[in-house]
Automatic annotation (TrEMBL):
GO terms for cellular component: cytoplasm. The lineage of its organism: Eukaryota, Metazoa, Chordata, Craniata, Vertebrata. It holds the Pfam family Roc. Residues 204-420 form the Roc domain. InterPro entries: Leu-rich_rpt, Leu-rich_rpt_typical-subtyp, LRR_dom_sf, LRR_domain-containing, P-loop_NTPase, ROC, WH-like_DNA-bd_sf. This is Malignant fibrous histiocytoma-amplified sequence 1. GO terms for biological process: regulation of signal transduction. It comes from Clupea harengus (Atlantic herring). It comes from the Eukaryota. Keywords: Leucine-rich repeat, Nucleotide-binding, Repeat. One of its GO terms (molecular function) is nucleotide binding.
Length: 820
């Protein structure tokens, strides 16, 4: 048990994952020199006797069943590091922390703390504190900790943060709190923005209530009608020709609440851009056309309701959704309406409870495995999902043709958004200057000091501000970041080529998107005037090639993109067109954005042969002398518009039992557009690739790898297969699999309501057994050699008794019991 004896006879004891209910006698009897004890992942409810370990510096009690904070810890005067996260601790008594003068690191996350002891600020050496995932309402107790640098307070119930807390911090994470001072949108900007916020708050402050309201639902469900009728306080008839293209953004104030309306187009073509615009902390109004809803057809519930709820649940799982039944005047009679309402309400409730049940079941499966401690990351992921609470309100019936129904819809919406249980953080405390800046930007637009299309250079905007308002540039940027977060402006600071571009009218940006992401794109191409084609040296037959390429290969020629966007820009009076659509040298704002958000893929990035390229030398990292260049004669591919997998299958050929084969299961399902975005993310790694509707094939040297999305018995997974030509390539194949899994993991972060389990199916023909991967994320973060770890099991046997070499099933060495 003793793992190391240092020169000064310090001893480390490892009792992790041994199902212990009390402290082992061996450490209590022979305790003098023990400095580190690892007791994580046991079943400890108390740790009587721990105070005997007087020389303890590191104590790990995480993942146990402690209900009370062990008071005896106060006697461990040498303690430097304490892990006591993932227990059920409700309260910490006074007089513990003043005794722990050496304590530097304290992890208390995932407990049930409602408050911190008032004397925690006497723990003078504390520099790292993690209290995420508790029920804390304030952090006043932490004020005055002189050495606190890293503070994690995510997922608590914090509303106001004390300014004094931020004096020495170098790391601060606070997402998942109903913050109003500073608002969460300020906190995501980081410590600099928080400090700027408090400085500006000293001058003046105001309380505002703002809510982003997203209208979602199938095409023609009545989203625009609800949105416009709400704004005009009376029924507004929306013409069919006036269907929403992309997203419409408007603003209205009612009952002291500022509503920022985002009306999403319902046609499927637009779903591929939804991930860019569906953001957390919004109120979702889900429009359902009751006249076309059929309660006897499960597909009808899927199309009108569950598709949308699943999407919201995966992407913004903490949302509040109000389902609204429209077109009730076109239903048969009141009975028909009542029946449909009852059906939708009950199916929705079942859907939500089924999901919780499925998650619990998965958790139980892991718990019942031989050694649950090997699956602890996955258990945490599942617990995180069960913690989310998507709130779906009762279906509201609205006849959009009746004024009194519109009034009722308005009143009901206002009541829901001002209900503190639904939106604890609708109220925000803001420095007066925030509102001034926002109003002033609108003023600049009105006075034409900013071009009407609203794209403005950051330095120009800064100059206007510094000269007119005497505002510090850092403070100004902090305000811009806040306005971006609430959706009033768009500033993609994180995209290098766009960090100087501020879009003070987000609708312009959406107009750019909708110039090419639209349901009637073919019609738009066909309507390009001949004159314009000629100006671009394009023949009519080229136009037909564009159409057929788009229809058959989902690719759109860059020149076509440029013409369509130019047309849209003309209506918006944008002068610097090249900047948006690109010129011979650079791709322009639009393509940067579409590629950044993984909506399309440049079909070919050419890199001309360069005779001056540096010589390749195996021992040195090779650096390209010329970067890849943008070629205006190329095209962009929109993988989500592809119709089949013919080309991919031709290259791939047959699946073989010898292929390395990994299944990544998605709970609860693969989000819409996930695979295509994965393809767009992965293709640049392997320039030799073939893309299909839901398959994609990559070649690297001799290795051929296939990814595809599959559904078997309602389980959805992505399969990664590698053709195994010879043993030498196995390591390289596992590296390719690892790269793809890394991209999957990266992408999955954008869907907080999602988790994955990984299996390798047994390689015996007809055998249904599989090998479940243990916690694999460390493998992805590691160098990926696939050979780390000490002793290795040479062979694995499935539950049906079939034996195979380990490296044909897992990346060898990482999943044997010793290496974990
Ligand atoms: N009779 C009746 N017509 C409605 C009702 N709600 C909407 N409509 C009509 O249904 C049609 C579609 O409504 P929209 O509001 O454009 O639907 P949408 O969901 O915004 O459609 P997309 O823009 O395609 O996403 C319009 O002609 C509306 O006037 C209703 O409650 N009763």
């Amino acid at each position: 048990m003793s793992l190391s004896n240092g020169p000064n006879q310090q001893t480390t004891r490892d009792f992790a994952g041994r199902k212990l209910k009390t402290l082992p006698k061996s450490i209590l009897d022979n305790n003098e020199n023990i400095s580190k004890v690892d007791l994580q992942q046991n079943r400890l409810k108390q740790v009587s006797g721990i105070s005997k370990l007087v020389n303890l510096t590191d104590l790990n009690l995480s993942r146990n069943e402690l209900l009370d904070f062990p008071e005896e810890i106060r006697q461990l005067h040498h303690l430097k590091k304490l892990y006591i996260n993932q227990n059920n601790i409700k309260c910490i008594p006074d007089n513990v922390f003043p005794s722990l003068q050496q304590l530097q690191f304290l992890k208390l996350s995932t407990n049930r703390l409602t408050e911190l002891p008032s004397d925690i600020n006497q723990c003078l050496s504390l520099s790292y504190l993690n209290v995420s995932n508790n029920y804390l309402k304030d952090l006043q107790a932490l004020v005055g900790l002189p050495n606190l640098h890293d503070l994690y307070v995510e997922k608590n119930r914090l509303t106001d943060l004390p300014e004094e807390l931020f004096v020495n911090l170098t790391m601060f994470k606070a997402t998942g709190n109903p913050l109003r001072k500073p608002p969460g949108e300020v906190c995501v900007g980081g410590l600099k923005d928080i400090r700027s916020y408090f400085t500006m708050l000293r001058d003046s402050s105001s309380t505002v209530k703002t809510i982003k309201t997203m209208f979602l639902g199938s095409s023609m469900a009545g989203k625009s009608t609800l949105c416009r009728s709400f704004q005009q306080c009376c029924p507004v008839k929306v013409d069919e020709a006036d269907r929403t293209v992309g997203i419409e953004i408007t603003e209205v104030e009612r009952g002291g609440v500022r509503f920022l309306f985002w009306d999403f187009a319902g046609q499927e073509e637009y779903y591929i851009t939804h991930h860019v615009f569906i953001t957390p902390q919004a109120f979702v109004i889900l429009a359902i056309d009751l006249s076309s809803y059929d309660s006897t057809d499960p597909q009808s519930f899927k199309d009108h309701v569950s598709f949308w709820i699943s999407n919201i649940q995966l992407r913004v799982p903490d949302s509040v959704v109000l389902p609204v039944g429209t077109h009730i005047d076109q239903c048969q009679d009141q009975m028909d309406i009542d029946r449909k309402k009852k059906d939708i309400d009950s199916k929705l409730q079942n859907m939500l409870s089924d999901r919780i049940e499925a998650l619990e079941l998965r958790k139980e499966e892991l718990q019942e495995s031989d050694d649950p401690s090997l699956f602890s990351d996955q258990m945490d992921d599942l617990s995180r999902l069960t913690d989310y609470n998507l709130k779906v309100l009762d279906l509201l019936l609205v006849d959009c043709t009746k004024p009194e129904n519109i009034q009722m819809f308005q009143d009901h919406t206002l009541k829901q958004v001002t209900n503190k249980d639904n939106f604890p953080s609708i109220e925000r405390i803001l420095p007066g200057i925030y509102q001034e800046v926002e109003e002033h930007i609108q003023d600049l637009l009105r006075k034409d000091d900013i071009p009407q299309h609203g794209r403005v250079n950051l330095s120009d905007l800064l100059e206007i501000y510094i000269s007119q308002k005497d505002l510090d540039p850092q403070n100004f940027k902090c305000i811009l970041r806040y306005l971006h977060q609430i959706g009033v402006i768009v500033w993609y600071e994180e995209i290098p080529s766009l960090k100087e571009d501020v879009f003070v009218k987000p609708s312009v940006l959406i107009a750019l998107f909708k110039a090419i992401i639209r349901h009637d794109l073919v019609k738009q191409i066909r309507e390009i005037p001949m004159q314009q084609l000629r100006r671009n040296k394009i023949l009519n037959k080229d136009r037909e090639t564009w159409v057929s390429d788009y229809e058959e290969k989902a690719t759109l020629h860059n020149v076509a993109i440029s013409i369509l966007v130019r047309k849209e820009l003309e209506t918006l009076d944008v002068a610097d067109v090249d900047l948006v659509v690109g010129d011979g040298n650079r791709p322009g704002i639009l393509l940067c954005l579409l590629q950044h958000f993984e909506v399309c893929l440049p079909t070919k990035i050419t890199s001309p042969l360069n005779p001056e390229a540096p010589e390749f030398h195996p021992s040195r990292t090779w650096v390209a002398s010329k970067p890849c260049v943008y070629d205006p004669d190329n095209a962009c591919m929109f993988p989500s518009y592809l119709k089949n997998n013919h080309t991919v299958l031709k290259i791939w050929g047959e699946d073989k039992l010898s292929d390395l084969n990994v299944h990544i299961y998605f709970t609860p399902e693969i989000p819409y557009g996930f695979l295509h975005r994965l393809i767009i993310k992965t293709c640049p790694l392997y320039p030799c690739h073939w893309v299909g509707k839901d398959h994609c094939c990559f070649r690297s040297g001799n290795n051929l790898t296939l990814i595809k999305a599959k559904t078997v018995n309602e389980d959805q997974y992505i399969e990664i297969r590698c053709k195994e030509e010879n043993d030498i390539d196995i390591k390289k194949s596992w590296q390719m699999i690892r790269e793809i899994m890394f991209k999957i993991d990266q992408l999955a972060q954008e869907w907080p309501g999602l988790c994955q389990l990984v299996h390798s199916p047994c390689k015996e023909r007809g055998c249904s057994a599989y090998f479940q991967w243990r916690d694999w994320k460390d493998w992805m973060k590691s160098s990926g050699s696939g050979n780390s770890g000490s002793t290795q099991e040479e062979k694995m046997t499935c539950r049906n008794g079939h034996t195979r070499r380990t490296e044909l099933i897992y990346p060898r060495g990482l999943f044997n019991s010793d290496s974990t």
